[in-house]
Model the fold of this input.
Amino acid sequence: MHKTPDNKKSKERPVYPLNQDGGNIDAANHVTGRSIYVDDIPAMEGMLFVKVFDSPVAHGIIKKVDFSEAEMVEGIVKIFSCKDIPGENQIGGIIADEPFLADHEVDFQGQPVLLVVAENEDAAEDAIKKIKIEIDPLPVITDPREAFRQGQFLSDSRKFVKGSTQEAFSKCKYIFEGSAESGGQEQLYLETQGAYAYPTEHNSVKIYSSTQGPSQVQRTAARVLGVGMNQVEVDVPRLGGGFGGKEDQASAWGTMAAMTAYLLKRPAKCIPHRMEDMRMTGKRNPYSSDYKIGLDEEYNIIAYEATYYQNGGAAADLSPAILERTLFHATNSYNIPHVHVTAHSCKTHLPPNTAFRGFGGPQGMFVIESAIDHAAKRLNVEASLIQRKNMMDNKDEFPYGQIVAECEAKHCWDEATDIYNIESVRKEVDWFNKQNQFYKKGLSLMPVCFGISFTNTMMNQARALVHVYNDGSVGVSTGAVEMGQGVNSKMLQVAAKCFGIHADKIKLESTNTSRVSNTSPSAASSTADLNGKALLDACNQIKDRLISFVKTELTDNEDQTVEIKDEVVYINDEPSIFTWSNLVRQAFMKRINLSAKGHYATPYINFDKTIEKGHPFAYHVYGTALTIVTVDCLRGTYEIDSVQVVHDFGSSMNRAVDLGQCEGGIVQGIGWMTMEEVVYNSEGKLLSNALSTYKIPDIYSVPKKLEVKFLNTDGSDMAILKSKAVGEPPLMYGIGAFFAIRNAALAFNPAATIPYSAPITPEKVLMGLYSKHGK
Ligand code: LUZ
Ligand code: MOS
Done:
């Protein structure tokens, strides 16, 4: 199935079963349906189903819950309320503000109130219909600015300051102020949330969870059960997508299955249907923001101020950390001498919003791009002129104090505008717009600078466990969760390269808290870097033992060089009689330790929250996208003609996986900016609650042309094998689609009023096309 490339001339042996472009070791299993997700794990006898009864009201006091009739339904085993919780009724990760099951108050529609446990799913569904709840309603807030006015916050507000904007604005020739809004986004992983748990010896429980954060599920379940983390084992086979939605919010589902298994001593499965998942879980945080940008006569941006009102939902979840990343990315790729940005995490009565690819960064970048576009339109210049003029470079300083280094911002921009021929493309667009009355094209350039590391320095650590079995085969465990992003392929490459053996000798194990503990979630684009470096540490320990064994036991001269290449032991560059497998066997007989635990903690990084300064990121990823769209000016609909990118992958270790991440991120970013509209009514009810009312990009809406050029650089030593993190940065190229569409609409009606409010749905475009009063 996998082709073995003929690559004898190259010194480095290609990794099997991957080819020179890399590839994904799971691809064949995915397309043939052999990959195993939580719901594919064979059920044990006596397995119970857990269904959630959730609040029909967004805010109120629970007066009465009556489930006596529900309990009579055949097949119902137990209905749990918060009174049955053996430990703490608390699942808040960063801040302890979120009950596992509602107690006397409900704070959002979809909040879990009861767990209905049944012999089968149908019985649980029937029983849920018979539950009666009385709630005295309280006022509902869905808008973050309203929450701000009422003093409703989830966490402390934060402020990043560089220079003095007040002073600087007095010297600016041009000042523009406005506001920008960006909407929520449903993670819409193909595989919904879910978990399967069963009781184990000594009052313990094992959970199979679809989570990006196994240790988070473990900690949360232990807390709710009132047991030690050592009594909860979490195993993650793989995920059918996470996108941030399972960074924190998988914990509730894991705990539901675990509590049932623990209390009833039977296996239990808890997997919501799509509409339940959409209703009960949080999404990307919507933001409402104000900006003020000041430029001098040469269009240098001298000062920038912004205030972000984050819609956090009813509990903190990860919103405080997301808020922080918004501030870190407030100035995107631009060097601005005076910056003052403030962010508020506002408490509303929506499901707690949470991580989504980019984690607040995209929200912050959308605001400065809006501010620049605003300035450009008023000054009657191309936005790209202001963008390029203010692009950051080495030795500049980010508003949070980190000095810009190994900067590729201008490199990516200049290469993109050069190879994609921006000048002639502009002329073609203008010509097209002159020729066509009801179709207009628009283009935009979108630079991206994204910081790599968890913004919380503590989280930048990882571990790995490697066993070399005495037949020469290898088992690798890390804290990395495979969620379709291809991290297992990269881990396999790391181990194969380090040992000098073929990939088919190596097995990537599931992610398991008993094998690798205290993991950070697979998130922040950092999974391959952190776990890969921990894995390298473990592999190197074993390799060093094997090599010194060769030197001391198998040769008479310890000064000889010993290497393993292609599963053959080379002594002084000459192949020896030892293969990998018989070396391992010999070493085992001499009682050499063939297992190792690796650890990695990102060096140099730090951040001092008391002064909001430091060096939080290991490095940054850069790139530029050119987006061209065509708007149908009778209908307001549009197509993305092309997205052409120059992206800084560093020295990519797996071009196929990295390209896939880049393409997927771009399309997901375009979805956020254009068609994906999360709508709640004023009662806090999710209206876009199914795939019929919530539209994500499909094959027909992806750009007709999507080109990605790998920037030619060395990469960063802080990245695994110099191959830079790729999970999140490309999503932000999608922001370019917003401005390209807006520009096309302005070509039709230069007086159009089109607020900086994403998503720019066809409805909004149509309203804009025929609006009378422009600005
Ligand atoms: N999660 C987190 C993240 O806890 N901290 C981060 O900085 C982050 N960044 C991106 C995505 N998830
Ligand atoms: Mo994430 S937004 O889970 O890296």
Observations:
- DSSP finds 19 helices and 30 strands in the chain.
